[in-house]
């Protein structure tokens, strides 16, 4: 049945009202948040752009190059190469494409060291590319055991059939916000000439702006290109960067990695395409540029400090009610121990609170994104207490 | 350097002015176009949505389900399953994931019959998933040779090591707009129980709305779920569907295929995720819904008829100037024979005209999208004539 414009907009408004809104503070398990207000105006301006065919949208392409340089800059890389893409999943799959293509032994599966706590995008990559994952045991900090990695590589790297083709480390893991000891892992990777990819999809817009007072002694917060072996980093402006979706990011140390991704693109203004996805809007690219120029490092520092302050506030309140965090928060993610997290999560949902759960440990998972305020935390802890009492 | 809001918007405006605009009629080689005006209003409304976590955005998720049913409806499928995703590349990779996962022999590469004229997204899929492509010769209609396919399958399908795991056919190929003889291919696939995927990224919003008078005798325009073996179709609302990017589509015959795509998603409101990309905006989904409700089948029919009318107008004008089409246009795509298409393409670009080229035959490629008007065609043919004279 055909509708007129008014009917269409009214019908869609009704659907939209069924969605949760970030500003209501009930979304506590998402790594996305309300984009910065300026991004609405920017998105309107770049609504029709398509970076899948950059020769047609040369201005938007220039913005992308600048965004990559700006992000490279706060990742300690003066000569970065990369793309603003659909999100962390595409970025991580892209890094795995490189590792697969760099792997010399075609007769066996590419072998990659991947943390137990890795995001499920790595599972998609494994399934598609037939990668073999080696998952080191976790330390009591929920990070990869560095000694295990060192020993494993020493034991296997002389034998081409058993050699490790790549390592993935995480800076701000999805479940607990922990950061692998990337400084030490980088040393091992460098010594053994192994490709090292860092998934900082979440942490990339947090760690560079984190005040010293929030840093935990038992974690090493170094994760970027200042570490010699780091070849690529996933870092998403549409998470803590306050850009709208789609704005994921993949940054390489330099453009020498492009050749491992290029596919011939005969119909386009460019002859080759390195991104996994073809057609892609410039909305996220231009918004990321705008938000970064507007906020600057100081602006992000303020946002991160507020989120960290709320994180510690949540932990304090939770403890008052007898709930214990799994670890002291490393970033703005809190995991609260729970004997039946799936059930608690479901019960909370029934009364309108949306947290998520950890897989590696029995816990509820709460992300203190910029849309979460202290009053939401107060209400939430009350709701959690009532759910656990019944 | 930090900027204020005004400075940011002014700087971005300057970049945006370096882009081409669809309404200027100079973009003649793109399968994207100016989205329908209503999609700006809709995108504003759904700006913050994330279908990567559908439990948080239940209204937007309902819209997606409805869009899939609406699209299924004009593809002759009352019980469709699918997603609105980033574009044709993700859709085609998704279909290849299914074929890979359905392939029973894990000791050898999955074998897929793929047209010579297939979009380069299939090359990305091949590279990632180590697929083996069998490319049948092309007929003089630039479609796959059906007899070759039949013979190849008969010769090999008894032997598990040589068995074909999937067939890809195209309805509206990127280069020439041709349509494979999917009716006959479907019969072969059905007899031999082979998965058949149809790439109708472009043709999906053209062929169902094409008036009989535009159909060529030497092509079979049947391509959808009315053919028994068709299991999945790529169909992009952000091409001829007039939705904004990102709005690609993958539609399956039914939900039984979901299990071959599902990956465990412990942190989300859903326990599993079937799409390749995780986080995804609802902008394209809601816009596709809105544009489809507003235009209806009649509206799309009018748009397609105008584009086809312009297509034949271009061919007529081209012939007047001595340029010959490779084939009579099957859809709104024209390929003009050229002895050095790369050079001509470059020369045209230097004077502001953006066509692209064919790979399978020496020709310039022009797509008559809705933003291309008759006056643009007149100007373009004049420009082409002047370029070829010099």
Automatic annotation (TrEMBL), chains A, B:
The modification N6-(pyridoxal phosphate)lysine is found at residue 239. Keywords: Decarboxylase, Lyase, Pyridoxal phosphate. Its EC number is 4.1.1.11, 4.1.1.25. GO terms for biological process: carboxylic acid metabolic process; coenzyme A biosynthetic process; methanofuran biosynthetic process. It catalyses: L-aspartate + H(+) = beta-alanine + CO2; L-tyrosine + H(+) = tyramine + CO2. GO terms for molecular function: aspartate 1-decarboxylase activity; pyridoxal phosphate binding; tyrosine decarboxylase activity. Signal peptide: none annotated. Its cofactor is pyridoxal 5'-phosphate. Pathway: Cofactor biosynthesis; methanofuran biosynthesis; Cofactor biosynthesis; coenzyme A biosynthesis. It holds the Pfam family Pyridoxal_deC. Catalyzes the decarboxylation of L-tyrosine to produce tyramine for methanofuran biosynthesis. Can also catalyze the decarboxylation of L-aspartate to produce beta-alanine for coenzyme A (CoA) biosynthesis. PANTHER family: PTHR42735, SPHINGOSINE-1-PHOSPHATE LYASE 1. Belongs to the group II decarboxylase family. MfnA subfamily. Belongs to the group II decarboxylase family. Sphingosine-1-phosphate lyase subfamily. This is Probable L-tyrosine/L-aspartate decarboxylase.
